[in-house]
TrEMBL record:
PANTHER family: OS05G0482600 PROTEIN
Taxonomic superkingdom: Eukaryota
Organism: Triticum urartu (Red wild einkorn)
Name of this protein: Transducin/WD40 repeat-like superfamily protein
InterPro entries: DUF7899, Quinoprotein_ADH-like_sf
């Protein structure tokens, strides 16, 4: 699972939930024989077989249950904007509970056992839930919200045990990162692979890394020259402000923040950087109109993928 970053820019939120199950098959033997016949007599056998296989995979999917986060009675206390019915933008499953987040910012919990809504997670009428994250380390749900009283510009994080939600008492949770100023363009990023949380406070240009298990602060990075941070398994890549001919890069141990490598990657002058990405020990650098460069940060061996002028 890759890291998920939520920025502080406000966005709207509502929706509907569908789960699939298999139904008993009819004439399975006859169906298999017919599929083999179509494969053998088709002019394009491989393509025909692949198409039939795809159809077979999805032929038994049917509607099992339908959930709705829109409730005119329950939503009546919310702001007019949040009351509107809108599409679902996130679905999170945690054990026997399914969470659905609508585009207008309404978040509801549904039971897989009873197929009924348990509760809404909006704690106040002006709360707009922006994103959800299931923390399997302590079996809890983290909600990231913005509030109308703060002009929807500051992120607020809250953690609630799944057990409390199952009981229908989401108010039993507690806030996270209260000391952090996560106003736009600040953000919070949840890294499930490394078990870390990265926050950025634009107010003082400080990045902080927290333990996802108990939310304790591990270390801070305060440097106004850091333009971007990217997370990979075991490491973090710090991208600094570029010069005319190079871009400074620093690789840290994500556990304790110790510097593993610091180097300058040479660039073509007067050409913008399309992207810089890191996949484990490989660093991918792409400039406008130039070949894709792949740098092995262990031995600094550089490979260019010629002919790759654009990456979609």
């Amino acid at each position: 699972m890759e890291a998920r970053r939520i920025s502080a820019t406000p966005r709207p939120c509502n929706g509907r939930r569908v789960v699939a199950r298999k139904r008993p098959r009819q004439e399975a033997v006859i169906s298999s024989v017919r599929k083999l016949q179509r494969r053998e007599i088709s002019s394009r056998r491989e393509r025909s077989f692949a198409m039939n296989s795809a159809q077979e995979r999805f032929r038994n999917i049917q509607l099992q249950e339908e959930f709705d986060t829109h409730d005119p009675k329950e939503n009546n206390a919310l702001l007019p904007y949040i009351r509107k019915r809108s599409k679902i933008i996130e679905i999170v499953a945690a054990r026997d509970i399914v969470f659905a987040l609508s585009q207008s910012g309404v978040c509801a919990a549904f039971s897989r056992v009873t197929n009924k809504r348990i509760c809404f997670l909006n704690g106040s009428p002006d709360e707009v839930v922006r994103s959800l994250f299931y923390n399997k380390n302590n079996d809890s749900l983290i909600t990231v919200s913005v509030y109308g009283s703060e002009n929807f510009s500051a992120l607020r994080c809250k953690t609630t045990r799944i057990e409390y939600i199952r009981r229908g008492t989401p108010d039993a949770g507690f806030p996270l990162f209260e000391t952090e100023s996560l106003k736009w363009p600040g953000f919070v990023e949840f890294d499930d692979v490394n078990g870390k949380v990265l926050t950025y406070s634009a107010q003082d240009s400080t990045y902080k890394v927290f333990d996802l298990k108990n939310y304790t602060l591990l270390y801070s990075i305060s440097d106004k020259n850091v333009q971007e941070i990217k997370i990979s398994p075991g490491i973090m890549l710090l991208i600094y402000t570029r010069t005319s001919s190079s871009i400074p890069l620093k690789i840290l141990n994500i556990e304790d923040g110790t510097v593993l490598k610091f180097f300058n990657h040479l660039l073509h002058r007067n050409k913008k950087v399309d992207f810089i990405e890191q996949f484990n020990e490989k660093l991918l650098v792409k400039q406008d109109g130039e070949n894709l460069q792949i740098l092995d940060v262990r031995n600094f061996q550089l490979t260019e993928q010629f002919g790759i002028s654009e990456v979609n």
